[in-house]
Amino acid sequence: MTDGAGGVDNLAYITSKFAEFNIRVNAVHPGTIRTPMTEHESVRDLVKEMEKDIPMKHIAEPKEISNLLLYLSSDESIYSTGIEFVVDGGLIQVMYKAGEKSIFGFVQKSSQTICLRAFLLQ
After folding, report:
1. How many whole angstroms separate alpha carbon 1 and alpha carbon 10?
2. What is the pTM of this model?
3. Domains detected in the chain
4. d(CA 113, CA 117)
5. Distance (Å, rounded) from C-alpha 76 to C-alpha 73?
6. What is the pLDDT confidence band of residue 100, given thresholds at 50, 70 and 90?
7. Residue 2 pLDDT exceeds 50
8. What is the mean pLDDT of residues 65-80?
9. Cα 3 to Cα 8: distance, rounded to the nearest angstrom
10. What is the CA angle 3-42-63, rounded to 5?
11. Three-class SS of residue 12?
């Protein structure tokens, strides 16, 4: 399940409808993930600055996200349903406690804007 228009709002409803059939419904909210875009020379310095704000001091490697997805798709998580999993190295909690309502990090190069992160906090 993704965090789209009404995605998270519908999590409880969908969970309640499918739980009786032993179908688990969970939401995964990853933070910034290391990709070819985050390795590009035009954003390398910005990524290093972003990592300073993350309590675990690094952006996620793809395997750190896929390990959670593997767990959630296995029988090891048989009783986990209706849960939102945030995989961001602790960043959301730190920013939430600091009273931030939103965090935007972006870099602009010529007319192209590359958005690296945009977390909306409730």
Report:
1. 10
2. 0.70
3. 11-120 (3.40.50.720)
4. 12
5. 8
6. low
7. no
8. 96
9. 6
10. 45
11. helix
Per-residue pLDDT for 120 more than 70? Answer: no
Q: Which residue has the tokens 């961001």?
A: 88
CB 18, CB 25: distance < 8 Å: yes
| pLDDT of the residue at 10 | 86
pLDDT at residue 55 in the model = 93
**DSSP structure string for 53-111:** HSTTSSPBPHHHHHHHHHHHHSGGGTT--S-EEEESTTHHHHHHHTT-SEEEEEEEETT
Structure-token pair, residue 16:
């309640």
Per the model's pLDDT, the better-predicted residue between 3 and 72 turns out to be 72
pLDDT at 69: 96
Handedness of CA 84, 103, 9, 69 (dihedral sign): negative
Question: Which residues, other chains included, contact 64 with Cβ-Cβ below 8 Å and sequence gap of 6+?
Answer: 87
State the greatest distance between any 2 C-alpha atoms of the chain, in Å, as a whole number.
53
